[in-house]
Amino acid sequence: VRTRVGIVGAGPAGLLLSQLLHLQGIESVVVERRDRPYVEQRVRAGVLEAGTAQTLREAGVGARMDAEGLPHEGTELRFNGQSHRIDFQELTGRSVLVYGQQEVVKDLIAARLADGADLRFEASDVEVHDIETARPSVTFMHDDNPLRLDCDFVVGADGFHGICRNLVSGLRVAERKYSYSWLGILAEAPPSSDELIYCRHPRGFALHSMRSKTISRMYLQVPADERLDDWSDERIWAELHTRLATDDDSFTLTEGPLLDKGITPMRSFVSTPMQAGRLFLAGDAAHIVPPTGAKGMNLAIADVRLLARAFAAFYTDKRTDLLDEYTTTAALRIWRATHFSWWMTTMLHVDAAGTEFDDQLALSQLEYVAGSRAMATSLAENYTGLPYQAGWSYK
Ligand code: FAS
Ligand code: PHB
CA separation (Å) from 309 to 74, 133, 190? Predict the structure, then answer.
């Protein structure tokens, strides 16, 4: 099989890149190891930055998102039994959209297939070859047939556990591990608040989020090595009630049958360079952030915007400058989101190995964000997503 850009991975990064390239007349083939139902059912991110939502609209896949997504103009910080609203719209003129990552993936797959895209699900033994030449290729088994995809470029959008990052020689990794994970649930219960609630409680972090007016999405901080079997539905609800309670008892948490539950490890991870010869990495294949700042999928989308523009410049004007500068440009936004996600995580989580000093630092930081317009604006502009420029900086 011959194409311009071979894409490994059909997550948000791989699928959006394929769609953006298609809109510029650049053909691609997406090679995905899982089957379509698996990819479309994976429950992950839930918050779209303003720029991400606009990118999806411009890509022609924003109709259902705008019909079903929930616009959120602010969020609530809860600590010491008190609630404090951060008004994104008033502080930054921007808001976010709550719309599940799996819905974004379904919309992208539907659009790509409607345009006759070549999406190869259930590919196995995927390997990438000759990235240092002008003729890289991807080999894989599909429907029991050995196939070779000849390309001009290969994009590794294959996530944290993919194969492509390891092909980059001289890789530099910067990472931070955390002593806790998130236990996440999807419940058939109407959300107990109109907006998200980020809560620091002495027993640990809790997040109240949602997917629709009838589906709640919530998370609890648990020890990093926690086993899901140790958490019955009753224990999960009891812990959520305890952590999300307010001193004035004004908050009532609505329970419902659990539709999904899982434990997600927390890590900060940035690997550079995000390219080697004709191979480019995008999204979780190159970087991971703790989900506290709701940046993971949004960062993947930002990488793909840069790559789509760089490939268009190559095929239209034979320019390689945007491709050559990809890592440098992408890293600006990646480190901004990495810092913000680390900052939100350490401010809102209780480190079991922490001391009274750590607790007081975090509570002071929360008090300052709740009480200072400058600090609230800083949180709001990072959370809603900094403007896309060549990377990001105020320079
Ligand atoms: P993805 O991991 O989504 O996609 C990579 C794709 O590549 C997958 O479909 C995989 O099957 C495929 N692949 C892997 N190896 C392959 C191979 N060898 N050959 C072919 N295909 C291969 N972010 C948030 O903002 N908020 C959250 O609450 C949140 N929760 C998360 C929970 C979990 C359990 C996980 C793992 C991540 C979570 N994230 C969250 C982050 C997540 O949303 C990612 O940022 C987002 O999926 C990144 O998209 P991609 O880079 O496309 O990677
Ligand atoms: C979610 O709804 O899944 C969600 C929202 C905000 C986060 C993380 C996850 O920071």
Answer: 32, 22, 41
- Give the dihedral of Cα atoms 49, 333, 268, 230; nearest 10 deg: 10
Q: 223: cis peptide before it, omega within 30°?
A: no
pTM exceeds 0.85, yes or no: yes
Two structure tokens written together for 280: 């480019």
Mutate to test the pocket of ligand 1, among 29, 47, 101, 218 (most ligand atoms within 8 A of CB): 101
The best mutation among 205, 219, 220 to test binding of ligand 2, ranked by most ligand atoms within 8 Å of the C-beta, falls on 219
Q: What pLDDT is attached to residue 395?
A: 46
Of the listed ligands, the closest to the CA of 165 is 1
> Is 282 within 8 Å of 156 (Cβ atoms)?
yes
199-255, pLDDT tens digit by residue?
Answer: 999 999 999 999 999 999 999 999 999 999 999 999 999 999 999 999 999 999 999
What are φ and ψ of residue 272, in 5° steps?
A: -135, 155
Residue type present at position 67: A
The ligand 2 site (C-beta within 6 Å) comprises: 45-47, 196, 209, 217, 291-292, 294
**Residue 392 pLDDT > 90:** no
